[in-house]
Write a structure and sequence with these properties.
- The chain is globular, with a radius of gyration of 16 Å.
- A hairpin with a 2-residue loop joins strand 1 and strand 2 (29-41).
- Helix 3 (105-112) crosses helix 4.
- It contains four helices and eight strands.
- It has a single domain, classed as Roll (3-methyladenine DNA Glycosylase, Chain A).
- It is of the alpha+beta class.
- Strands 1, 2, 3, 4, 5, 6, 7 and 8 form an eight-stranded antiparallel beta sheet that branches.
- Keywords: DNA damage, DNA repair, Glycosidase, Hydrolase.
Amino acid sequence: MNVDLLAHPAEEVAPRLLGSVLTCKTPEGTVSIAVTETEAYSGTADPASHAYRGQTPRNAVMFGPAGHLYVYRSHGLHWCANVVTGTDGMASAVLIRAGRVIEGEDLARKRRGAKVEGPRLARGPANFCQALGITAEHNGTDLLTGASVALSEGKPVPAALIQAGPRVGVSRAHDWQHRFYLVGDPTVSAYRLSPRAKPPAGA
């Protein structure tokens, strides 16, 4: 993956990441997942972004150069992974919401559970990280050097197969069309409106 492809606003990069591949190497083995669903978060201009109120020790990676991994814990329980985009100093990141395991399925199933069906192994951002083996120790990893976690280009995805829609589970700016996914792909997570979000007028 070329850093020039990532050095743009998150909402431009998010659909481009569909079809790309994240690979994580651990002592247990290697798992690779092709991305099928993403969400863009535009930093200080985005009320739903972790960086909306400025830089903190937690979100510092988001303000760094494109091509690094921003990992955070959701609700104190699950890890979620983001690809940092944009220019250095301007927070911008793309949340990886779902994908299809293309290498290391046995290891991914061991991590997720023996009864989990193939399409559900990496469906949802927490499950994606669990299947891949991503934890807090990977926060800040340079995805372009390919040391422990690497991002690579996959097969190009035709524009006709990409759908945009509102983001999942956020209460602020939830109606922004910054979620991108592959139409009809069984690995894509279901849309859920946050119970704290106000439905659009007339809904």
